[in-house]
Automatic annotation (TrEMBL):
The keyword Isomerase is annotated on this UniProt entry: yes
Protein known as: 5-carboxymethyl-2-hydroxymuconate Delta-isomerase
Keyword Isomerase part of the UniProt annotation: yes
GO molecular function, one term: 5-carboxymethyl-2-hydroxymuconate delta-isomerase activity
Length: 125
């Protein structure tokens, strides 16, 4: 049930849908999530950003993975590492014209305060 948010600087020539697909597959491969469709991800291009003192030719990608509480620090680190590795592989890393920093973090959501519903679509008659 992770909620994945990929933020990236708009000066990066990347394909965010490709990155999300790679991250979703990597997260599912960790064995921490029951169904692939439980992983929900989105990407946001950051039009306004600064790296350091607004250095030129700089960019970043930050991956935030929110999971329900109860996993150990080691497991959360494995999830972060899997997401980061997937990003690095899916980006044409060596061909990028900018210096890019990649980061990934896993945040916990409290199960006791998390709520969701989903519908069951009616079959067409």
């Amino acid at each position: 049930m992770p909620q994945v948010t990929l933020e990236y600087t708009a000066n990066l020539p990347i394909q965010p849908a490709k990155l999300l697909t790679a991250v979703n597959a990597a997260l599912f491969a960790t064995g921490q999530f029951k169904l692939p469709q439980d992983i929900k991800s989105r990407a946001r291009a950051l039009e306004v950003f600064a790296v350091g003192d607004d250095l030129p030719n700089q960019a970043f990608v930050h991956l935030q993975i929110a999971v329900l509480d109860g996993r150990s620090i080691e497991v959360r680190r494995q999830i972060a590492d899997a997401g980061l590795a997937a990003l690095q592989q899916a980006m044409d890393w060596d061909a990028l014209p900018l210096q890019v920093q990649l980061g990934a973090e896993v945040k916990e959501m409290t199960l006791a305060t998390y709520a969701r519903v989903k519908n069951t679509p009616q079959a067409a008659a």
